[in-house]
Amino acid sequence: MVELTRRIFACFRLQFTLSVQSARLMRLFCILTILSMVPASFAKAQGHQVQKSSDPITLTLDEAVQIALISNYVLQGTRLDAAESRQNLRASASVLYPQISGQSNYTRNLKAANPFAGSAAGDLFSGFAFVGWLGYNEQARTDADPATIPITFAEYADRQQRGIDAANIIVETSDNPFVVDNQYTSSITITQKLVDVPGYLRLFGPKGARSALQALDRAADRQEQIVIGDVREAFYGVLLAQEEARVARQSVERTRQARNETAQRVAQGIIPKIQRLSMDVELANQETALVRARNEVDDALAGLKYLLGIPVEQPVRVHGTLAINDVSPYLTLATGDAYTRAIQVRPDLEQARLTYQYRLNEVKALRLDRMPLLDLFANFSYIGRVPDNRTFPVQDPNDPFKFSQGRNTYFSKSYWQSSVNVGFNLSWTLFDGLQRRSRVKTAQIAADRAALNMVQLEESIRLEVESALRTLAAARQQILSQETNVANAELNYEYARARSREGISSSLELRTASLQLDTSRLSYLQAIYSFLVAQSTVEIALGLPLSEQFDMDLAANP
After folding, report:
1. How, if at all, do strands 316-318 and 57-59 pair?
2. What is the Cα–Cα distance from 460 to 453, expressed in whole angstroms?
3. What's the pLDDT score for residue 1?
4. What values do phi and psi take at 396, rounded to 5?
5. Which helix (H) or strand (E) holds 385?
6. Phi, psi of 373 (to 5 degrees)
7. pLDDT at res. 124
């Protein structure tokens, strides 16, 4: 339901940004969206299937094109690919922004090795106990009290231990004075890239990421033009299939009427019975052709709905007939002018140019990879070293052999300390085993390939434009020829029918005239279809956006 609501609001938001004519289309598309989304939404929510609307939707050619620009599967995929590539480019640009990382860990030291084992460092730390003994004896020698006399180190240590024991103080000793039971470390590191010439060139250079993003947009524009051409051809195909079905139906009606007339004449004994049997066979063949024509209409509609992104089970009708009201202005367009216009506005050629610029920029950036990189970093850390036994002896200032017990809390300042450090990190690859040279050559090959693709595309556009204009002119000639042919076929059929009524012609002559009439009408419709498709092909070859394309109106059904 959230997705349904989002699409509905998106539809109505688009209505305010489009013209009045497009707003009518968007209202239709909102209906299509609701019809296609509501059943799916409720099916997901309630866990069962819901039947879609059986009400048919009538579409004009313009409406079909606009719907395809929104919901065509291929076009949606192209836009998603462009969005994905755009996000990847943005992700690559993130390395130029400050990078902040945090880390926290806890270590429980169950057993730690003495880092001073085998050296004289242990004697150094144990010698610190002599300091107190020497101070005591020095004071005893200078004291005026004759009872105070210097003592040996062993006696001094023994008397201190008795004082600690008397105070019930437990002092844990270890052969590694630098290890505590619990160790905590938390740190935050900030890194900012200061100097990265190749990176800045790739991302902010005029031919770097900007060219790549523009190339993505041009690719989407070209795909839109291709989709418009596909939708028009499919729409014209539906109209042609419907006209072919109409001609087949008229042929069945004429054949049935001729069969009835033949049956009457057979009953009157004017003609032999074999002619009625022949008409029965012809009628059966025409009815079979009608069934086939109707099936082709259904197939054409299904293909159109797929291009539009409409559910296949949704009934759809098309509004229009294969008849041309206007003459295409491209019939008088010179090939040279058409080619000049195409190479100026074709989105795929612009995409090829941008891709070539991007490849050249990549070659330049790789050559600058030998430049040094400079980063600024700052590190903030908080370290805790907490022992399990946090009691300690407190010596009486007046009696070195008298002690009391002290105890620290777990978060005492004696165990927790902070540190801050900043600095620069300079890295410079002096020799990379010729890897950079290989990468530069590979990038140069890619640039050469992009240049070749651009030249090849220009030649392909020239051939495409010339072929499209020739096809359009040929289709126009076919229309003029078939108009005369249809008129002659209609007149010939009327003559044959009149001769058949008078009994001076055979049923074979009538069937031949009827077949010629049907063939000429279908050929005329094929010529109209070919002309409309050629008109659209010329516009696609020229790379014209939808707003600049010629409005070839179809004669609307009443």
Report:
1. parallel
2. 10
3. 42
4. -70, 130
5. strand 373-386
6. -115, 135
7. 45
3-state DSSP assignment of residue 1:
coil
b/e per residue, 169-199, with b = 16+ CB within 10 A?
Answer: beeeeeeeeebbbebeeeeeeeeebeebebb
- The CA distances from residue 70 to 46, 227, 309, 338, 461, in Å, are 29, 11, 9, 29, 27
| Alpha-carbon gap, residue 163 to 440, rounded angstroms | 78
pLDDT digits (tens, 9 = 90+) for 265-278: 778 777 777 877 88
Looking at the whole model, is its pTM more than 0.90? Answer: no
At residue 20, φ and ψ (nearest 5 deg) are -65, -40
CA separation for the pair 163, 1 (Å, rounded): 79
Q: What is the CA radius of gyration of the chain?
A: 46
Q: Which of 80, 142, 96 is nearest to 376 (CA)?
A: 96
Amino acid at 543: G
Q: SS3 for 184?
A: strand
Q: Which amino acid is at 341?
A: R
Q: Name which of 507, 110, 93, 456 is nearest 273 in CA terms.
A: 507
Residue 162's nearest CA partner among 394, 405, 396, 401 is 401
Q: Is 291 exposed, middle or buried (0-12, 13-18, 19+ CB in 10 A)?
A: exposed
Q: Are 373 and 210 in contact (CB under 8 A)?
A: no
Of the candidates 65, 220, 69, 75, which has an alpha carbon nearest to the alpha carbon of residue 551?
A: 65
Is the CB of residue 420 less than 8 Å from the CB of residue 383?
no
What pLDDT is stored for residue 379 in this prediction?
A: 95
CA gap 32, 238 in Å, rounded: 20
- CB under 8 Å, gap of 24 or more: what pairs does 36-40 form? 36/310, 36/311, 36/314, 37/3, 37/4, 37/7, 38/4
Burial class (CB in 10 A: 0-12, 13-18, 19+), 499: middle
Q: Any bridge partners for residue 192, and if so which? A: 376
Rounded to whole angstroms, the Cα distance separating 475 from 468 reads: 10
Whether the Cβ atoms of residue 318 and residue 234 lie closer than 8 Å to each other: no
Stretches where the chain sits below pLDDT 70 are 1-54, 113-131, 144-148, 170-178, 206, 503, 505-508, 551-558
Whole-angstrom distance, CA of residue 297 vs CA of residue 150: 121
State the Cα–Cα distance between residues 454 and 355, nearest whole angstrom.
9
Cα–Cα distances in Å, from 140 out to 137, 145, 149, 159, 161?
5, 8, 5, 15, 20
In this structure, what token pair is assigned to residue 378?
């700052």
Burial environment of residue 375 by CB neighbours within 10 A (0 to 12, 13 to 18, 19 or more): middle
